[in-house]
Write a sequence for this structure.
């Protein structure tokens, strides 16, 4: 008996369904909308660069390289308010930005790595959950809170510590001062920034340490390693990329911080490498300081400064991404 | 017939890996010894104050831990102990500032809290008036309006970005992920400058709440996008496959299966976004105008906000003004705490299956 049946001439056979990978119209629209939304970050970042460059272009062209090498920032006007001459130079502010951010990273990274290691490998149960919650909470604190806390609580103490450091370590050029003015120094700003970036650096480092392969940890223990030996042989090499990435992320944050630095730093248009001396600068706080009384011309200068700051933080972030991607592969 | 008697002695549960009472007492004694030694040293020498005591406590704790370990089990254990204590101390160092910040804000801010604070604005008062006069209603309303508008703009963009990264996985996934990361690193003041250069100077020429909201939304997008991406990645692939297997298009699978499953996580993303911008000061100072009277119209006239109120109060410098500033900070802190707790309780709930 044949298995196949002859089709009877009854109702029409439905035409064969077309099988295709072509998405339907609804999916095409959906993908279009989502892709457009996904590219919003690209568009916004691009617009930021374009508009800041457009507004600051005039100043950047007129000042040329002296915008980055000169330290004066002044507009001289006559009695009527007409601009006589102007000179916009960011050197002191750029140096100050990097200096404060570096102090912050140098102070914050050891503390952050210690707490990340402690949270991952030592703390257990409720203590661990509590520590993680507290650090995450601190990351959510607004910067204005850190700023005024730094001004009212930390500043008197730091002034005293600066005095001590200068007294006993003043022979190191970095800690020497020309005049004994320790208020509102880059050191204080760096400490406030350090407190601000500890949470994010800790969080990034902890996440990486948390992913340390369990088999390697147990292999180390099985070979008779103590906890510290395990951390040194397994966790630290594995998490190096995360630590560096977290530190760079913190550096980027510290460079772009405005209000916290503005409240605790004495802004002076002069390159100052002496961290304890009460004079410093920060591009972001310069913008805030000058914005209030700025005339249109100076606003253009501030836009150019904003562009420089934007590109600087973008560069640091790019570098952080690159380092994490590279060391991450090596560690695995 | 007699039943065989089975001995029913259940062994007492023990956790041999946990430190015994004697070991706990020993660890505690290290701490006590270090504390005594540091206090003694500071009392005997001309040093005074809390700082040297704390520093020497750390040094002594590490030393004593090292010596104890070395004598009982050899130098490897000694080193292990010392490092363990050091890491614990490092964690304490990270916690001290947060404790100090909380304590200061509460102890200085509560003096400025009074009932009028939430029912009056500052249009009839200045910051140097007695604390019981005026309030921050205008600032609260302003912050609320600006954050809401920012949310309306940032929420769709952030979630679309997250969906692009997790569902579509298009050609630009890697660069988009990097750009979102880069965007979260954009200094907040640059966001304010951007709004000024792109909108205020060329077009509107006025400082108002909408401008503040636009600046805030730029800062909000990356937070929402990154949290939402993490949440969407947690949704099991089975759900997506089930959706497609039932004949759903991708659009319907995402809209009817994936997003509803991730609902509580997406709300967490929203809350974290709000927490990120509610205390953001720099862009607000630049573009929102910052009025003292209640203004609920975001496109007309300057709009006050909580950070602006705090900023303004502190710069008057008198005792009343400073108390006002701390009270404002306390209100802000309470908001952040509430949002943070909400986000944590929501994210602790399991992803709905």
């Amino acid at each position: 008996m044949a298995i196949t049946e002859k089709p009877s001439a009854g109702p029409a056979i439905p035409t064969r369904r077309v099988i295709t990978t072509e998405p339907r119209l609804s999916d095409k629209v959906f993908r279009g909308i989502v892709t457009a939304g996904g590219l919003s970050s690209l568009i916004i970042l691009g617009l930021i660069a374009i508009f800041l460059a457009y507004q600051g272009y005039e100043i950047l062209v007129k000042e040329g390289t002296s915008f980055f090498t000169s330290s004066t920032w002044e507009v001289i006007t006559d009695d009527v308010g007409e601009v006589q001459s102007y000179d916009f130079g960011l050197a002191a502010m750029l140096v100050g930005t990097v200096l404060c951010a570096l102090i912050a990273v140098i102070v914050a990274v050891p503390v952050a790595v210690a707490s990340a290691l402690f949270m991952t490998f030592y703390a257990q149960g409720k203590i661990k959950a509590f520590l993680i919650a507290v650090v995450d909470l601190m990351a959510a604190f607004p910067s204005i809170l850190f700023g005024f806390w730094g001004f009212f609580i930390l500043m008197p103490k730091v002034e005293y510590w600066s005095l001590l450091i200068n007294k006993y370590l003043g022979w190191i050029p970095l800690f020497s001062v020309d005049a004994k003015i320790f208020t509102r120094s880059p050191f204080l700003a760096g400490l406030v920034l350090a407190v601000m970036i500890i949470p994010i650096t800790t969080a990034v480092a902890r996440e990486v340490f948390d992913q340390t392969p369990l088999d390697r940890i147990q292999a180390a223990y099985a070979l008779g390693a103590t906890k510290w030996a395990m951390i040194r042989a397994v966790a630290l090499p594995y998490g190096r990329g995360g630590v560096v990435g977290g530190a760079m992320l913190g550096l980027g944050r510290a460079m772009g911080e405005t209000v916290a630095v503005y409240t605790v730093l004495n802004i002076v248009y002069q390159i100052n490498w002496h961290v304890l001396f009460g004079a410093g600068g920060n591009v972001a706080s310069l913008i805030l300081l000058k914005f209030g009384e700025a005339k249109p011309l100076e606003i253009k200068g501030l836009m150019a400064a904003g562009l420089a700051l934007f590109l600087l933080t973008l560069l640091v972030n790019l570098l952080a991404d690159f380092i994490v991607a590279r060391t991450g592969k090596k560690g695995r | 017939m007699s039943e065989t008697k089975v001995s029913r002695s259940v062994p007492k549960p023990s956790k041999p890996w946990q430190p015994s009472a004697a070991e706990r007492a020993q660890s505690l004694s290290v701490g006590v010894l270090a504390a005594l030694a540091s206090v003694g040293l500071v009392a005997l020498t001309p040093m005074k104050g809390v700082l040297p005591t704390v520093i020497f406590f750390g040094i002594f704790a590490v030393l004593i831990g090292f010596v104890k370990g070395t004598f009982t089990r050899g130098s490897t254990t000694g080193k292990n102990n010392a490092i363990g204590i050091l890491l614990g101390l490092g964690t304490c160092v990270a916690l001290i500032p947060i404790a100090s910040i909380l304590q200061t804000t509460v102890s200085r801010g509560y003096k400025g809290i009074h009932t009028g604070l939430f029912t009056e604005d500052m249009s009839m008062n200045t910051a140097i008036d007695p604390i019981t006069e005026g309030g921050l209603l205008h600032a609260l309303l302003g912050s609320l309006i600006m954050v809401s508008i920012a949310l309306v703009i940032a929420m769709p963009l952030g979630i679309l970005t997250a969906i692009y990264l997790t569902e579509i996985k298009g050609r630009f996934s890697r660069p988009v992920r990097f750009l979102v990361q880069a965007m979260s690193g954009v200094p907040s003041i640059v966001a304010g400058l951007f709004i000024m250069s792109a909108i205020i100077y060329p077009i509107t020429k006025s400082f108002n709440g909408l401008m503040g909201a636009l600046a805030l939304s730029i800062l909000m997008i990356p937070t929402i996008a990154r949290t939402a991406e993490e949440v969407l990645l947690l949704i099991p692939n089975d759900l997506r496959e089930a959706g497609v297997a039932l004949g759903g298009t991708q659009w319907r699978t995402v809209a009817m299966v994936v997003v509803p499953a991730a609902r509580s996580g997406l709300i967490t993303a929203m809350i974290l976004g709000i927490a990120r911008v509610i205390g953001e000061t720099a862009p607000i100072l630049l573009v929102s105008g910052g009025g003292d009277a209640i203004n609920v119209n975001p496109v007309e006239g300057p709009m006050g906000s909580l950070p602006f109120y705090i900023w303004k109060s502190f710069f008057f410098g008198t005792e009343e003004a400073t108390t006002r500033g701390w009270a404002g900070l306390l209100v802000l802190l309470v908001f952040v705490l509430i949002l943070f707790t909400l986000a944590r309780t929501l994210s602790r709930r399991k992803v709905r299956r």
